[in-house]
Amino acid sequence: MRALTGVLATAAALSTVGGAVSAPAAQAADTEPASRFTLAVLPDTQFYSRYAESQFELPERYGDGNNPFAVQTEWLAENADALNVPFVAHLGDVVDQVGQDVEWRTADAAMRTLDDADLPYSILAGNHDVRNSADDLFDDQYDLAQEPFLDWFGPDRAAEQSTYGGSDPTGMNSYHLFEAEGQQFMVLALSWRASDATLAWADQVMAQHPTVPVILTSHEVLNIEPDGVTPKETAYGLRLWDQLIRGNDQIFMTLNGHFHGTSRLVKTNDAGNPVTEIVMDHQMAYEGGNGYLGLFEFDLTNGTISVQTGSPWVVSKPTEKLTAYDQAFLEGDNQQFTLGIDFQQRFAGFAPDFTAGSPDEPSLTQRARDILLDGFVGPDPVTTERPAGTSDFPQVPGTLAHWRMNGLEGTLAEGATIPDVAGGNDLTRVPIAESGSPTAQPGDVTVTGDADPFSSDGAAVCFTGSNKQTNRFSYLTTSADAPVNTAALAGGYTIETFLKIDPSWNQSDNAWMKALVRSGNRSQIGVPETRWDWTASPVALGLSNLKEFQWTEVPIETAKGDRTAWSGEIMVDTWAHVALVNDPAAATTTMYVNGAPVLRNASDTVGHGLDGAMPWLFGSDWVDDRATNGWNGCIGETRVIDHPVGPDQWLTARADLDAVAITSPVVDQGLKPLLRVTGTGLAGATVTVTGAVRATTVVGADGTWTVELTRPLLPGTREVVATQTLGDRTGEASRVRFRVTAVSVVLWPIYKLLGR
């Protein structure tokens, strides 16, 4: 069984794109001495800064009093000489909450380690590092006197770096010139939403250093498709491409964070040369990123850039605290790879004298692995694979409801239903006239094949046009007598769903929208009066005004009041698997997003406090005894289980193909000899039977299968073997032996004559 996590262990395939060749780093490492150096990259550190004092630095956490950000910079300072690191590039989102000094102090202390070690670095502001991160507000429109980034990491501090070249008039953007292997490189660091004036300044900087290769760092350039691998261009990234990158041949690489995950894209500039764009951000993985940083080995002799994603934080943890998420290196697609680049040829148009340095460095990629893995024994990683069909998910006893949309398509008409395949809890679209939303439209609810790639259902219900300003929303509901309505879940629970936020989401129209709700009124069930949400539903999963998933529940002991779990910022137009697991033994509810537990979870909570047998809702909230604030996005298959289960039983895990069973080989040796083999398995899977009978069949919808052999068998011990296959996966064989004691007197002579 395999479950979805933030750790993917598939290797990148060898490919050639736009003149750049890529392959897995581990395969490309050259052990012969060469001219090499390592560029270190720090992606989004926002959660390390936010939770340093409240979580990471608590002695009971890991006993060392350090947070991942501090460990990252300490490790780089300690190993800069060994890895020949001339420069470190931070990609923005230094902090999570721009107005919290405690976060800036944490970031200041971590980066001060590099200052003290004389290890130069660039740092830029991400959207979380500025007061107003609206897409249409550019850096020359900021009230610069109110920007904390300038107080903590402005030009005065940047000037302390030996590599500092200068800043633009806002002070938000800077450039650095570092030397490596006898050659000069520039890092051009552009903060959130560079204005036209800033881009003109960047042009001028490059014009003043016309022979220097440039690495452009910015918080946003490249995004990632919902599959978590494929690159996706953004409007702002294309703005940078059109106005700055494509016309400046010096820019050969861009690095950005912001979008959760890793991906890369090779484009061709106006000079006909490749530019590699790389996005790297691990903030939604375990522990807010688990301390992963980028190590880019430039091999000027052999013409490669080898990229690794490693974590000094992981290897610093006590062994007894390690989980399957704790891998020293990430080795999935775009997490470990090698780019082929003929540096002299690539830079010939502006730096004809560019040459490699002395070939005296061993493989720095291997050296980094040796350093991080020295004495570290980690657990096996948890990997995942995509479903082979609609049945490819674990069947879990105790499933109370499982809503699936496969087989439906197009507009979901008023009064139409989405089935509960567990039985008895179908969802019905509430007619507009009864919904309380006179502005809703019939086409606002559709079923689409655009689903999370790890959902075996392969379908989702989407809600469009939702807007709290115009009171427009639509929703689905269970019937008043649905059995799941009365489930208090005293034995704990697992609730799973797949969610996607529509790209049109904005704070004024969609803040606090809800996807999944247990309707009712908190004020009627013994919840202490609160300033906010006292008349809201007892249980709900939705999105905050800051695009965070919020799970809010009133437990069975309603006097305890609200209990919440929160994610970090969620990207729009990207699927996420959300699992909510209530463990009654620990009295906790943990939210997992794409397999990784979030940092803020609910405690002292068991089950759900209910306002009678109120329905479950999809697509809207329930406040003041009425529906409101509709979901602007899509909801995939959703399941409710009456006890806590782990990742190996989630919808992102794959079906247990070993569960094929032979229930009975039935032998009838009469005038019409028959061997019938019956069994159970996964509906839709292929069963291959060998041994006394050879046949292939498909498991029926009821989970049973049958094959027959219409010829007699000689007396003696016989065996039938059944294996189950789904897609390219095959389970363990099931074997049954049986004894044939007699053959029909009529058929025996013929059988013997034939030598049977």
How would you summarize this macromolecular structure in one to three sentences?
The chain is an alpha+beta fold and 756 residues long. A hairpin with a 2-residue loop joins β45 and β46.
Major sheet description: 11 strands, antiparallel
- Overall pLDDT, averaged? 91
Radius of gyration: 30 Å
The number of domains: 3
Describe the global form.
Answer: globular
Low-confidence residue ranges: 1-29, 750-756
> What is the CATH topology assignment of the largest domain?
Purple Acid Phosphatase, chain A, domain 2
Share of residues in helices: 10-25%
CATH architecture of the largest domain: 4-Layer Sandwich
The termini sit apart by: 43 Å
Helix/strand class: alpha+beta
Tally the helices: what do you get?
Answer: 15
How large is the share of residues in beta strands? 25-35%
